[in-house]
Design goal:
By secondary structure, the protein is α/β, with parallel strands linked by helices. It has 13 helices and 9 strands. It has a single domain, classed as NAD(P)-binding Rossmann-like Domain (Rossmann fold), CATH 3.40.50.
């Protein structure tokens, strides 16, 4: 049996669906219930309460760990200790590329702490470090629906964003087999916000307008739903990415035996959300 935390999110939901479709017994862990594939057990729990994870972890052979937000209130050693005590043998951690590329950034410190705790846990470990998510463009849904407009900073800075379903597929491979180590996950090519808007417009069959935001304007908008350190770290990557952050990794192909899906394919699959 495999336990998936964050089971209703952009990565967790497709991961649960992929595992269930393969006939793997799955326990989905999230704070709130949500529609799940037939046969999937749901356990309401929160990583801030490691003891509360025990009912979900009983009988599990592998655990997918997704640490939401800034990790406030979550003790990595307590969570991993609960997994080990339950007999879990394999952990797949969803981390971030920023742990390597920006080791001093407060925005990724909680994930760095989880990686360190996992290294010393004695558990078989796979660490997935994706870059930016294609699904981050869901932030544009209101303006696209209402005004056919995209407003974003750094319009021509390109990054190789990845389809969350590809992250889920990589996690499924690691959870079902033995793939220890660290894998950096990116899309197949860098793409800028302006190009993403054009791809979404093509998927919708319409031309979208684009307005460039200043960094301060973007920070104000993101601050409504992100902690300040996450806003700063995100904008640093979006505006002044390092060479490594703009590079395309081959790790998706190594895990899946195929190339990652381009942003245009993600846009076509999810166009209905923007209509």
């Amino acid at each position: 049996m495999i336990v998936v935390t964050g089971a209703t999110g952009n990565v967790g939901a497709p991961l649960v669906a992929q595992l269930a479709a393969a006939g793997v017994p799955v326990t989905a862990v999230s704070r709130r219930a949500a529609p799940l594939p037939a046969g999937v057990r749901h356990v309401p729990a929160d990583l801030t309460d490691a003891g509360g994870l025990r009912p979900a972890l009983a009988g599990a052979e592998a655990l997918f760990l997704l640490v939401a937000g800034d990790g406030a209130g979550i003790d990595p050693e307590a969570v991993l200790g609960a997994a080990k005590a339950a007999g879990v043998g394999r952990v797949v951690l969803l981390s971030s590329q920023g742990v390597r590329t920006r080791p001093g950034a407060a925005s990724h410190a909680h994930l760095g702490a989880f990686e360190q705790a996992l290294r010393h846990s004695g558990l078989a470990a796979t660490v997935l470090r994706p870059g930016g998510f294609a699904a981050n463009t869901y932030a544009w849904v209101p303006s696209i629906r209402e005004r056919r407009l995209v407003a974003a900073p750094f319009p021509d800075v390109a990054l190789p964003v990845i389809d969350p379903a590809d992250i889920a597929a990589c996690a499924a491979v690691a959870l079902r087999g033995h793939h220890p180590g660290v894998y950096e996950l990116t899309g197949p090519a860098p793409i800028s916000p302006r190009e993403q808007a054009a791809a979404l417009g093509a998927a919708l069959g319409e031309r979208l307008s684009f307005v460039e935001l200043t960094r301060a304007q973007a920070a104000a908008a993101m601050g409504a739903f992100m902690p300040p350190e996450v806003v700063t770290g995100t904008l640093d990557i979006l505006g002044t990415p390092t060479r490594d952050e703009q590079a395309v990794s081959g790790d998706v192909a190594r895990l899946l035996g195929r190339d990652p899906r381009p942003f245009a394919a993600w846009a076509a699959d999810h166009a209905a959300a923007f209509r």
